[in-house]
Amino acid sequence: MKVDLTDIKALENREVEKRVPVDLVTFDSKLGKFPITKKEDVALHIRNEENKRLFIQGTTELTIEIPCDRCLEEVPTTFHIDINKEIPLEETPDVDEEKLEAKDYMLGFHLDLDRIIYDEVLVNWPMKVLCKEDCAGICKKCGKNLNHGTCDCEKTEPDPRTVSYTHLRAHETVLD
To answer: How many CB atoms lie within 10 A of CB 86?
Structure first.
């Protein structure tokens, strides 16, 4: 959602409170495309401080469906997002990484709120997602979700050290 800041930038020391809807319907990243199943409007507070900088604060919550790392079932994952940005309005010769990042959110007199939310989700993306702590995962042979019951596949796997040694011994016998 693009938020028009023309009226805020025009008046020095102006403060505005708004509720703004989130336009994102999916979270697209290199990991895949994840549906956003629940989202709240962003409660925004924007303050123009002496026409030198904008302070943007806000909160929202999103729920994104992320596959379980073991069984691949969709897990609703809630992200509580707190926005706390300072965007300089004056051009300064010193180049600061935070100021460059802040300028990415501004397109003329419009604030790209979806870009801010996307970046916050990306930073807070979980390292591991499990449907439950004791998730059994999927069978390596048939692909059945083991949380829904067992499969008929053979459960014992040979010790790879033994298989390698036996294979080497058989190979030596052939060479003799």
So the answer is: 14
